[in-house]
Amino acid sequence: MRISELIIRVIDCFYIKPVRALMPLQVFRYAVCGGVTYMLFDPLCYFLFYNFIVAHRYFDLGFVVISPHIAAMVLVFPFTFFVGFWLNRYVTFRQSPIGAGTQLLRYLLSVAGSILLTYAGLKFFVELCGVWPTPAKVLTTLLTTVYSFLAAKYFTFPA
């Protein structure tokens, strides 16, 4: 059995009656994969990189000095990016006939869109609407999540 099939079986065990009434299976798989990637894997990698790889040091690149927390974020991004891509390709959106290279490029574009949307959302809610930063981040995350799912379903991994 492939690892993706095992992951699907585990996720589908939690797709029980009350959840079935709330969302389709594909949305549930997307939510679980995103939750695991961005609520568990990413923070764990960040912790390890910040404390043991970057080790709280500043990095002077000659033209810019990178703070430890930003350096850790930059170093963790490729891991989170590829784990998110793999889970989307092999667990959530398995039926897409598009080749992996095209999907990877499209995924990169959609992630770039998510980053821009997050930035614009925070600027809009905090600076123009006067919403406090934490609620603004929650609103922005909700909007970005909807955007990300729709981009994945209809652009990156269309069936």
Automatic annotation (TrEMBL):
Transmembrane region(s): 27-49, 61-87, 107-126, 138-157
Domain of life: Bacteria
Residue ranges of domain GtrA/DPMS transmembrane in the record: 30-157
Keyword tags: Membrane, Transmembrane, Transmembrane helix
Gene Ontology CC entries for this record: membrane
GO terms of biological process kind: polysaccharide biosynthetic process
Main subcellular localisation: membrane
Endpoints of the signal sequence: none
UniProt membrane topology term: Multi-pass membrane protein
Subcellular localization(s) per the UniProt record: Membrane
Protein name: GtrA-like protein
